[in-house]
Amino acid sequence: MPLQLNESPGRLEAELSARGVRMTRQRRAILSVIETADRHLDAGQILRRAHRLESSVDRVTVYRTLDLLKKNRMIDELDLMHVTGGGHFYERTTSRNHLHVTCLRCGKVIEFESANLEMIRQQVRNAFGFQIEVTRLEIGGYCQDCGKSDGESLKDAECAD
Length: 161
Hints:
Blueprint lengths: L10 H8 L6 H12 L4 E2 H11 L5 H13 L3 E4 L10 E4 L6 E5 L5 E4 L2 H14 L9 E4 L20
Parallel strand pairs: 4-6
Antiparallel strand pairs: 1-3, 2-3, 4-5
């Protein structure tokens, strides 16, 4: 998703470098794709975009980099209602708590922020003494363009790439 106002391009690379991770051309291309994405991307989409920037990027490098970023809590892996089957999507970890509203027909994803999400987090903290590190909430339905389901299955519908 677009960078937040308080976030600058290169943050992922700078954080990995500070942790002593070697920065290759391939890894830089992958990080650039993730940081400049205007929507949630799956691994295949990251691979195709990174390959345009650096032709030596391969699938293994993408998955290893995604794994490294997840282990360092720099990206979040999302299933987004499994709109493309079992594929997962990735976004930069931010300090902004939000939920994802996903159209089950076209695959459109909208990020939504609400004070109610913070209220739920506070209720969980109070009720269970739980130290929350990650909050994820997804809502699936049909966007205004797709309207109500007419019985067409998702695999028959055209999903956004």
